[in-house]
Amino acid sequence: MIKLMVIFIFMVSTTAAKACPIDAFITSVQKEGIKVNSAHRSKEHNKKVGGAKNSFHLLACGARDIQKSSIHNVKEFIRLALLAKYRIIEYKNHIHIDTGESKYLKGTYNNGR
C-alpha cells in the first residue's frame, strides 16, 4: 500500500511540474469554462488546418486557441495576457495566445473566422 502511494505521489508531482505555463496562466485568469479549440498540433494536422509553417502550435506548450464565447471578459483576458508577456491574436470567434513576442494583433482568415 505504501509503495503504491509513493508511486501515485511521484506521478502527480511530475505531472504538475510538466504543466504548461500557458495553461497555468489561462486557468489563473478564469478557473473554469474556458474552451480550448486548439493546442499542440502535429505537422500534418497543422498543415491540414491551414496553420503557419512556423506555428507556435507545433510546440507542446507554445500556443492555445480559445473560443471567445467561453471567456467571461475578453478585454480583461487580453490585458492580463499582454502583462504576462504573451502574444495575442484576436479573431472573430477565438483568441490565439502564444509564447511569441508580447503584442496584440487583430487576425483575419480568408473564411472570416
Give a verbal description of the structure.
This protein has 113 residues and is of the alpha+beta class. The protein has one domain (20-106): Muramoyl-pentapeptide Carboxypeptidase, domain 2 (2-Layer Sandwich). The chain has helices at 2-17, 21-29, 43-48, 74-83; strands at 36-38, 63-67, 87-90, 94-98, 104-106. A hairpin with a 3-residue loop joins strand 3 (87-90) and strand 4 (94-98). The protein is globular, with a radius of gyration of 16 Å. It starts with a helix and ends in a 7-residue tail after the last strand. Residues 1-17 have low confidence and may be disordered.
How is this fold's topology laid out?
Blueprint: H1 2-17, H2 21-29, E1 36-38, H3 43-48, E2 63-67, H4 74-83, E3 87-90, E4 94-98, E5 104-106
Parallel strand pairs: 3-5
Antiparallel strand pairs: 1-2, 2-4, 3-4
Low-confidence residue ranges: 1-17
Determine the fraction of residues in helical runs and give it as a percent range: 25-40%
- What is the percentage of strand-forming residues? 15-25%
Radius of gyration in whole Å, from Cα?
A: 16 Å
CATH topology category name: Muramoyl-pentapeptide Carboxypeptidase, domain 2
Q: What's the N-to-C terminus distance?
A: 53 Å
The CATH top-level class label: Alpha Beta
Give the overall average pLDDT: 84
Count of separate structural domains: 1
The largest pleated sheet is described as:
5 strands, mixed
Oligomer: single chain
Secondary-structure-derived class: alpha+beta
Strand order of the largest sheet: 1-2-4-3-5
Q: Give the overall shape, derived from the CA principal axes.
A: globular
